[in-house]
Design goal:
CATH architecture: Orthogonal Bundle
Order of helices and strands: HEEHHHHHHHHHHH
Number of helices: 12
Strand content: under 5%
CATH topology: MetI-like fold
Structural class: mainly alpha
Strand order of the largest sheet: 1-2
Largest sheet: 2 strands, antiparallel
CATH superfamily: MetI-like
Radius of gyration: 24 Å
Length: 286
């Protein structure tokens, strides 16, 4: 009976696999194929000219550097903030935990565009933050807080921090509370117990989550457009302009491949230093 159920399950996967290949794999492969081909009078010719154009273009290299910097800053800050919030959820009173958890869930269900537009209001030259700074005489005139790298980073961190927090809650809850109680019972402060017990045991599990944040934010488009004001050029914007404005799909595909390759190298290097492939029963052990 179990064998028959497994056979039915395998047969049921066939139409799903077919539509997946038809609607996702084939269009993606077709798009990537354009990065190594060019149309000539003689037909389609294999070439690496698109990659040469990407590597030689100052705008593409600048966009790649900006993208990596934004992704790394977002990943690092989101990991720190998400870890601290997850610690509060896992270790504080039920009331505090529920309030933080509900705030994170509410943020996740808020549209990315709405959050970006909200930050545009807050960071505007005549927005609440600048008005407060001027009112307290901290600055004499409004500070440029919008349409720059910082504004984009703030918007991306706002999006990723709740995601990181939710991913880290099981990591922290898996750590026995008895270790922290023992340290506090021996005279350690709560902060010292956090630094000496939680971080050394959980950082190898937390680091891949930060890496996923880096990889996810590398392809962000809406937030850089709305908060960057056209002054923060990232790879996603370059790809959009190449494909939808210039209709140079080969160049756009080459940009995509270069971005994925760079992020893949970063992922490989980080995975080499973490215990993400260790059995679940041994995770959390030093």
């Amino acid at each position: 009976m179990i064998g028959q159920d497994a056979r039915v399950l395998r047969i049921g996967i066939v139409p799903l696999a077919f539509f997946f290949c038809l609607l996702f794999v084939f269009p993606l492969a077709k798009f990537l194929w354009t990065s190594v081909t060019v149309m000539t009078d003689a037909g389609t010719t294999l070439t690496l000219s698109h990659y040469a154009d990407v590597l030689s273009a100052d705008s593409a290299r600048s966009a790649l550097r900006t993208t990596l910097m934004l992704s790394i800053v977002t990943g690092a800050v989101s990991l720190v903030l998400g870890y601290l919030l997850a610690y509060q959820v896992a270790r504080r009173s039920p009331l505090v935990s529920k309030l933080i958890f509900m705030a994170a869930i509410a943020s996740l269900f808020t549209s990315t565009i709405a959050r970006a537009l909200g930050w545009r209001v807050l960071l505007a030259n005549q927005g609440p933050i600048n008005n407060l700074l001027v009112g307290l005489s901290i600055v004499s005139e409004p500070v440029q807080l919008i349409n720059n790298f910082t504004a984009v980073a703030v918007g991306m961190i706002h999006i990723q921090t709740p995601v990181v927090m939710l991913a880290l809650i099981p990591v922290i809850e898996a750590l026995p509370k008895d270790l922290e109680r023992a340290a506090i019972g021996l005279g350690s402060s709560r902060w010292r117990a956090f630094v000496s017990i939680h971080l050394p045991i959980t950082w190898r599990n937390a680091l891949p989550i930060g890496l996923l944040t880096v990889m996810a934010t590398a392809s962000y488009f809406t937030t850089p457009v709305l908060l960057g004001g056209g002054r923060v050029e990232v790879m996603a914007i370059q790809i959009q302009q190449a494909s939808q404005v210039l209709f140079d799909f080969g160049y756009a595909a080459a940009l995509s491949v270069v971005l994925v390759a760079v992020i893949g190298v970063i992922a490989f290097l980080v995975f080499l230093t973490t215990n993400w492939r260790r059995p679940a029963g041994t995770r959390g052990a030093p």
